[in-house]
Amino acid sequence: MAARGERILDLLSALNTHSNYSDGGRDAAYTRSYRVMRLVVGVLGVALPVIFILGEALFLGGGFHVRGSISAYYHTSMHDVFVGGLCVIGFLLATYMAGECKTWDFRASLIAGLAVLGVVFFPTSRSGLPAGAPACGSVPEPAGCSAVEQFLGEHQTAVIHGACAIAFISFLAVMSFLFATSEVLSKQDPLRARSGSKPRVFRNAVLFWVHGLCALVILAAGAWAFAGAGIGELTRLYIGEVVAVVAFGASWLLAGISRTAPYRVRPARVTAHAQALPVGADREPAGR
């Protein structure tokens, strides 16, 4: 019996396909997985505004409509795509950098992820209703109301939705700013020391300025949503939301394509053990 159990365990061990890499290769594979997560968030951020319009017109036969806001698609035929897409973004953001929960990256991403989930589960008010139409929360239940709207009331739910949307856009800007700061070299960074007589300031100056620009665009778009002007059929809210989400998506796409965790140098420790460490052993990933 013991021999049979041993053979079964050997068979299970042979079937283990969790990782086919050695230690170093396994770390690289997990790094690639981490970058793919960033790319997925970036692609969804850039693509969702277009998907809502084209999906409603081409696949659901609703015609080409630009709604008053991105959130308004909750109450359209694109409801499932809206909920699914934003939930994917929300859960990825909420779990991003979870292994380094003391970093600003994790905290900002967690707040943004929870905020966008709030945007989904506390929907905005229904649009295009005739005057005098009953609001969600009344009896009998009006058409198009979610369970949350019916329980809390349409106005109260919309207020929570608005607060979550503001938090989401604000922390998207914070995250792009953090991507920019990851390109600033510390004084202990070996890249600075290897640069010769003229010390380097940025790991990649282009990425620093692009991420910084994305952060400013997100903040400007958020301000436009409140105090800007509409353009044709596009409302100021729709313009602000779309520009903010696309800038956020572009920043995450660049972060996924360019790099993941640059090394952070620890202060040197003068010990016998430290002297015996190989070159580079005193460095740890910064987590960005």
Written description of the protein model:
Helix content is 61%, strand content 2%. By secondary structure, the protein is mainly α. The protein has one domain. The chain has a two-stranded antiparallel sheet. The chain starts with a helix and ends with a strand. The model is unreliable at 260-277 and 279-288 (pLDDT under 50).
The rough form would be described as globular
Order of helices and strands: HHHHHHHHHEHE
**Helix content class:** 55-70%
Total strands: 2
The major beta sheet can be summarized as: 2 strands, antiparallel
Counted up, domains total 1
Main sheet strand line-up = 1-2
Radius of gyration: 24 Å
Instruction: Give the structural class.
Output: mainly alpha
> What is the averaged pLDDT score?
81
Q: Strand fraction band? A: under 5%
State the separation between the terminal residues, measured CA to CA.
Answer: 51 Å
Q: Can you count the helices?
A: 10
Q: Which SSEs are present, and which pair or pack?
A:
Blueprint: H1 2-15, H2 23-59, H3 79-95, H4 104-121, H5 147-152, H6 154-181, H7 190-193, H8 205-227, H9 236-258, E1 263-265, H10 272-276, E2 283-285
Antiparallel strand pairs: 1-2
Helix pairs in contact: 2-3, 2-9, 3-4, 4-6, 6-8, 6-9, 8-9
